[in-house]
From TrEMBL:
Top-level taxon of origin: Bacteria
A GO MF label: flavin adenine dinucleotide binding
Protein name: Acyl-CoA dehydrogenase
InterPro entries tied to this protein: Acyl-CoA_Oxase/DH_mid-dom (IPR006091), Acyl-CoA_Oxase/DH_mid-dom_sf (IPR046373), AcylCo_DH-like_C (IPR036250), AcylCo_DH/oxidase_C (IPR009075), AcylCoA_DH/ox_N (IPR013786), AcylCoA_DH/ox_N_sf (IPR037069), AcylCoA_DH/oxidase_NM_dom_sf (IPR009100), Mycobact_Acyl-CoA_DH (IPR052161)
Keywords from the UniProt entry: FAD, Flavoprotein, Oxidoreductase
């Protein structure tokens, strides 16, 4: 096992960094912050044109046949820059599932458009009354000839108001056990009976509650076999569970170091000269390093043909909870000034401390709560009973 990047991957990372430094302007960051929407068509087009959309995909689909390490450093840099890439990421995730289990017709219809940025796909898993128990979905899809009629609602369908499709989990056999009677569909957003209403999170992000009222779609939009939705969705959940949020911790560390190196204390010395300041920043740096190593272990496992079943959740739990700890610790360290927001001209580090404190709390919920991740680690990693 190794965690060091080889020279070619380092060069690739440096190229990504240089590109993001050029396109992530203060104006674009403010536009994203004000809208609460982590997507920008121009930015997505730029990723495609530069070969940064799905570099590990085969060239026949618009990729570059790069390895998982190049893909990983790309994700790290995009996340560290807080780039508007969430819809691009979910699109790539669903496209990879369609590549694996979709019909030839669906592959032909979706894959090339998704890889060129012409098609976008949001996730429709969680429901208002089900919380983290995704398999308890009650949104129904009833077969009517060669069509399906869908009724129900989904919560936290981020970008569902602008995506072309929603990757929807629906119950098709109510009489079967909850994990056995589910099917996945790709629902066109322009379908009659579909509606998206804005929901604003603590971090200022816009997500949506989406409604499906007698939405009719052809069977050609089904992804995978009928009642096999839990296995199909598991392909995406495994990808999400292996996500790490360490790059946001790296960004927080960067701003904390800049603040400490440029801000004077009451006695006229720089904050960085104080033992408590260095101690707290060092603690963030250690957790940043551990977060990076945990995530890179997942990449190494993938590259060596292993599946990071428990290791992915380990990375996700540690990095998100470390981000919560660190953001609150730095907020306390900086003091009342840290509560000043992005739009306050006197806010230290452009209000990043205040924003990351709010943002961090949601990361322990995204892609499965910490409780869900710990259950996976216990049951599938350690072999403990439910």
């Amino acid at each position: 096992m190794h965690f060091q990047l080889d020279p070619d991957t380092e060069a690739y990372r440096d190229g990504v960094r240089s590109y993001l430094a050029k396109v992530m302007t203060p104006e674009s960051e403010e536009r994203i912050y004000r809208s609460g929407v982590s997507h920008d068509d121009g930015f997505a087009d730029g990723l495609v044109n530069e070969g940064y959309f799905a570099p590990s995909w085969a060239a026949e689909f618009g990729g570059q046949n790069r390895d998982a390490w190049d893909e990983q450093v790309l994700r790290e840099e995009l996340m560290r820059a807080e780039a508007p890439m969430y819809l691009s990421e979910t699109t790539r995730m669903v496209a990879s599932i369609i590549r694996d289990v979709g019909t030839p017709e669906m592959k032909d219809r979706i894959l090339r458009g998704a890889m060129k940025g012409d098609i976008t796909i949001a996730l429709g898993f969680t429901e208002p009354e089900c919380g983290s128990d995704v398999a308890a979905a009650t949104t129904k899809a009833v077969r009517d000839g060669d069509q399906w009629v869908i009724n129900g609602s989904k919560m936290f369908t981020t970008n569902g108001h602008i995506a072309d499709y929603v990757f929807l989990l629906a119950r098709t056999s109510p009489d079967k056990p909850k994990h056995k009677g589910l099917t996945m569909f790709l629902v066109p957003r322009n379908s009659a009976g579909f509606e998206a209403q804005a929901v604003w999170t603590l971090s200022g992000e816009r997500t949506n509650i989406t409604f499906y009222s007698d939405v009719r779609i052809s069977d050609e939009w089904r992804v995978g076999d009928v009642d096999d939705g839990w296995q199909v969705m598991g392909l995406s959940l495994q990808d999400e569970h292996a996500s790490g949020w360490g790059p946001h911790l790296s960004r927080l560390l960067q701003h904390a170091e800049q603040w400490a190196a440029t801000t004077e204390a009451d006695d006229g010395t720089l904050q960085l000269a104080k033992t408590d300041v260095r101690r707290r920043i060092a603690r963030v740096a250690m957790e940043d390093e551990v977060s990076r190593l945990l995530l890179r272990r997942c990449v190494w496992m993938t590259e060596t043909g292993q599946t990071p079943i428990a290791e992915g959740p380990m990375s996700k739990v540690f990095s998100t909870e470390a981000l919560v700890r660190a953001s609150q610790d730095i907020m306390e360290l900086v003091g009342p000034d840290a509560a000043r927001s992005y739009f306050e001209p006197t806010a230290p580090e452009q209000g990043r401390f205040e924003y990351l404190t709010r943002f961090a709390l949601g990361t322990t919920i995204y892609a499965g709560t910490s409780e869900v991740q710990r259950s996976i680690i216990a049951q599938r990693g350690l072999g403990l009973p439910r």
